[in-house]
């Protein structure tokens, strides 16, 4: 504004002009704070609640193809399954497990997470991050801890693994997870411990199989089978010779 124009303004106009400038400045500051708030809210939503990623190896083809952009919840489920195998395996027996969840140090979690599955009445129906809970499963049962936030670590231990004549085997669908083993010579033994962490949108299954069996005694030693067959053929030959001799008489 030129000095000549400013001199022609009345005091009221000057005051109004200054007020408008202050309001404009406040508007810009408010806009900047709103943009910061929206950016922070977006970061929280798409890192803590939702995730954006490309699909790979999904089971929804052709509706969803590999490489398609997907938005989903930033949570995953943890499943523990139990299978009893072998002719001496007791499919009514309950096997004890401990499950421990550990969170990331800079995050806050819900008070507890729902647990479903398993028929033992002592199984808790929730588990909290930072605690260890004990569950019991028998053959054919699955325990599911639902909607765990990404980044939570888990440790599962079958506390009675490789006892009472059972041989325990463990598989973990978590690509970054692990199952603990020990090696003695050519023999690998599963300790019953599985570890890993929850990934956004992924469901993890840790499968335990306990096998107990014995060799069924058939009364036949396979190493003697060739000699038994030779004896059988010789007996059949004698029968044929004896039969022909009787007919000739």
Quick synopsis:
It contains three helices and 13 strands, in the order ααβββββββββββββα. With 249 residues, the protein is an alpha+beta fold.
Report the CATH topology name of the largest domain: Immunoglobulin-like
SSE pattern, N- to C-terminal: HHEEEEEEEEEEEEEH
The low-confidence runs, each spanning 5 or more residues with pLDDT under 50, are none
- Return the structural class: alpha+beta
Strand-residue proportion:
25-35%
Give a written overview of the molecule.
The protein has 249 residues and is an alpha+beta fold. It folds into 2 domains: 1-73, no CATH class; 74-211, Immunoglobulin-like, CATH 2.60.40.1140. Helix content is 28%, strand content 35%. The protein is built from 3 helices and 13 strands. The chain has helices spanning 3-8, 11-49, 225-248; strands at 50-54, 69-73, 75-85, 95-102, 113-116, 126-127, 132-137, 142-149, 153-158, 167-172, 178-184, 187-197, 204-211. A 6-stranded mixed beta sheet has the order 6-5-8-3-13-10, with no helix packed on it. Strand 11 (178-184) and strand 12 (187-197) form a beta hairpin. The longest helix has 39 residues, at 11-49. The radius of gyration is 36 Å and the shape is elongated. The termini are far apart.
For this entry, give a set of tags:
249 residues; alpha+beta; Immunoglobulin-like; 5-stranded antiparallel β-sheet; 3 helices
Write the layout of secondary structure elements.
Elements: H1 3-8, H2 11-49, E1 50-54, E2 69-73, E3 75-85, E4 95-102, E5 113-116, E6 126-127, E7 132-137, E8 142-149, E9 153-158, E10 167-172, E11 178-184, E12 187-197, E13 204-211, H3 225-248
